[in-house]
Sequence to fold (90 residues):
Amino acid sequence: MGVYGTDRLGFDVTACYHPIMPVQRLVYHAMGQDVDLVIVDGQIAMEGRTLTQISEEKVLEDAARAFEKMISRLNRPEVMQNDKLYELRQ
Fold:
């Protein structure tokens, strides 16, 4: 069993590979963007960095709807009207 129940992960090792300590480089320096292939329960879930089982567009739409619902339940519109919302310091 692999990471989070995956069967196999395929990495683009050119991004993090180094001839000295290649395993440590993969473990400590590889990032999500280096994953090229994911197999879950024998099914290819991502290949060539493209999702094969679900629509990325639908996931983003569902997330946007959930976010809007959460914000409306918060009942504090000033949270989203904060000019410094995405600044590191406020």
The chain has a mean pLDDT of 77. The two ends are 44 Å apart (CA to CA). Residues 19 and 55 are 37 Å apart (CA to CA).
